[in-house]
């Protein structure tokens, strides 16, 4: 699709990219933060005002008032996107997550020549039971509207294969998630006073998708024979949700600052990812960059993000299966995996690779 501005202007200045989303919490906001610093690219971010704190310390952040999600929030997003495009004249608009497709469709009607990218961050259809009314509805929405974008960026090979199997429209590519290197002063001494225990870490929302309920059941089963196991929960319930009852050996930490998370990963013996569905969860490369092995559910292709027995283990997502895995863990074996974990991060999930591939895509479109 032709560029809406002269090619000479595009080559004489940085490429202006405007990102838009209906939610910036969790991985969607972190992903956008990770795009900051790309050479030759000027990034701006249009986000709900209630999520602006995800971008603290970053310039170029615009916000719109969203009183509640659903139709009112989507209309506010669309209105502010069209206004911002008219004022800022970006070279590319990149929309993030499902409801941002509505804004992308409105943008295409108003500015048909403006290049656009869509990133689902995991297809919403994966969260519904096959054949259910919800699955059919969301498949129609994201399957048809994804075709309005010039490119659809899937964050994992699994997402690409899912889109193809469902017949989703659009030109689909894969640019795997990546994360920056760990902070230089990350400590491995969070649990120095309990160094004999085997410390497991969970990072994420306390909701059905993330599978904390399965992990807590499995942990209680495993701890009957392994009282040395300790589970640390970083995260919180979703808005309106309730905190789970915690068994002995489980500690709730809450959310931690971005500059603190590496110390938690680095101090843990392993990260557990029991999600029912995902795109490419950023917690996996975040753990690997700190040399921390990952225990990943065999869902959404997560088992293909690690090397079995070298940088972690995978398991079928049932409490009894996870309990068996937890009960067999040994600190010495997990510690021996740490160099391979760090090497996997550097070879596959380093931020430089993401910036290079995304920059190449931007240049193709302008």
Main features:
alpha/beta; Rossmann fold; 2 domains; 7-stranded parallel beta sheet; 6-stranded parallel beta sheet; 37% helix; globular; Glycosyltransferase_grp1; transferase; Glyco_trans_4-like_N; glycosyltransferase activity
Write a compact overview of the structure shown:
This protein is α/β, with parallel strands linked by helices and 366 residues long. It has 13 helices and 13 strands. It has 2 domains: 7-178 and 350-365, Rossmann fold (3-Layer(aba) Sandwich); 192-348, Rossmann fold.
| Residue fraction in strands | 15-25%
CATH topology of the largest domain: Rossmann fold
Helix content: 25-40%
Radius of gyration: 21 Å
Mean pLDDT: 93
Task: Please state the overall shape, judged from the principal axes of the Cα atoms.
Answer: globular
Major sheet description: 7 strands, parallel
* Helix-strand pattern: HEHEEHEHEHEHEEHEEHEHEEHHHH
Low-confidence stretches: 5-10
* Termini Cα gap: 9 Å
Looking at this structure, what is the CATH superfamily of the largest domain?
Glycogen Phosphorylase B
Strand order of the largest sheet: 3-2-1-4-5-6-7
């Amino acid at each position: 699709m032709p560029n809406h501005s002269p090619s000479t202007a595009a080559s004489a200045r940085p490429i202006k990219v405007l990102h838009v989303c209906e939610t910036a919490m969790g991985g969607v906001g972190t992903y956008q933060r990770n795009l900051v610093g790309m050479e030759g690219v000027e990034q701006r971010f249009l986000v709900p005002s209630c999520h602006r704190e995800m971008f603290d310390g970053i310039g170029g952040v615009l916000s719109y008032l969203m009183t509640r999600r659903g139709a009112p929030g989507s209309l506010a997003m669309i209105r502010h996107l069209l206004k911002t495009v008219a004022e800022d004249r970006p070279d590319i608009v990149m929309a993030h997550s499902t409801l941002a497709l509505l804004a992308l469709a409105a943008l295409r009607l108003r500015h048909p020549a403006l290049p656009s990218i869509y990133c689902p961050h995991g297809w919403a259809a994966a969260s519904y039971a096959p054949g259910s009314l919800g699955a059919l509805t969301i498949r129609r929405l994201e399957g048809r509207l994804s075709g309005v974008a010039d490119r659809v960026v899937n964050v994992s090979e699994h997402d690409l294969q899912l889109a193809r199997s469902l017949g989703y429209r659009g030109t689909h590519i894969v640019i795997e998630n990546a994360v920056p290197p760990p902070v230089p002063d990350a400590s491995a001494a969070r649990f120095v006073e309990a160094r004999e225990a085997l410390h497991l870490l969970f990072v994420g929302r306390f909701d059905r998708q993330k599978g904390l309920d399965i992990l807590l059941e499995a942990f209680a089963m495993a701890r009957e024979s392994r009282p040395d196991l300790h589970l640390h929960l970083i995260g919180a319930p979703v808005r309106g949700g309730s905190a789970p009852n915690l068994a002995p050996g489980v500690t709730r930490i809450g959310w931690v600052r971005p500059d603190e998370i590496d110390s938690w990963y680095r101090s843990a013996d392993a990260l557990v990812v029991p999600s029912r569905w995902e795109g490419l969860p950023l917690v996996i490369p975040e753990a690997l960059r700190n040399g921390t092995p990952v225990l990943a559910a065999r869902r959404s292709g997560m088992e293909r993000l690690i090397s079995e027995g070298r940088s972690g283990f995978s398991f079928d997502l049932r409490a009894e299966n996870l309990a068996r895995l937890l009960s067999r863990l040994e600190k010495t074996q997990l510690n021996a995996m740490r160099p391979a974990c760090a090497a996997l991060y550097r070879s596959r999930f380093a931020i430089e690779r993401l910036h290079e591939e995304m920059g190449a895509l931007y240049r193709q479109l302008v």
